Amino acid sequence: MIITRRGFLKLSGAALLAIALPEGSAAAAFRIPVLTYHHIGEPAREYETVAPAQFAAQMEWLYAEGYRAISVAGLATLPVRDGDKVVLITADDGHLSFLDHAFYLLREYGFHATVTVIGRYVGGFVHENRPRLSWDECRYLMQSGLVEIGCHSYNLHEREGLVSPAATLAGFNQKLEEDLGRFQQIYTREMGKSADILAWPYGIYDQQSIAIARKAGFKYLLNSDGRYVERENDRSEIPRLAVHNRMDLEKFRSMFERRA
Predict the structure, then answer these.
(1) Regions in the chain scoring below 50 on pLDDT
(2) What does DSSP say about strands 34-37 and 113-117: parallel, antiparallel, or unpaired?
(3) Which structural domain range is residue 93 located in?
(4) What's the first-to-final CA gap in the chain, in angstroms?
(5) Under a CB-based contact definition with an 8 Å cutoff, are residues 217 and 194 in contact?
(6) I need a surface site. Which of 1, 15, 143, 220 has the fewest CB within 10 A?
(7) What is the CATH number for 205?
């Protein structure tokens, strides 16, 4: 029997997952990393663009180490014990590169992921003619049972005209209710149900923003606070850790070592 390197990792990873931690194990604290990706592609000129080989190496390492990648909704529904190796993988902006370079690899490992799309740009091209996922492709991803499709606003992902953080937040909240309502209307028409995951554009939000988002039907709100999910975290404020093109595998691994 010929087995590929990835096949070997899958078999050995399954064996690791089958080994239960002893009761009361303090191997690691309840601190779950939630990773944020954006565009996955070449050349990796932009800070937020991760090369496909870099992404593949990171996913391979996670699997070989016995990590489970769960859904955002899984934070509320799956039992997670202290010491469990759990990670969440999210991708903002709805780049088509997620389908090209990430999805099929994640499927090989049985990893869940969450993609948040900008409603205005679904099926379009922005920034150096990079294509965005279409609604057909969003449906295809969601039907896999491994990918959640969430919201990154309908059309609030623009920096033009922003003067200061205070002015930004005030103007953001003025537009937020209408924006999220429009997103939900289109999302429900295309996906057959409303969205319950929202990633704040540029991490901009306050308590008023949260109240507006909850009113619009969003249960899980992803921010960019650079912290870990802890047991007491409110699921309306889920912190995330950014992955970028200057993060080699050693730096990537260090995010998980700091969990303890």
Answers:
(1) 1-3, 8, 11-28, 161, 260
(2) unpaired
(3) 5-257
(4) 40
(5) yes
(6) 1
(7) 3.20.20.370
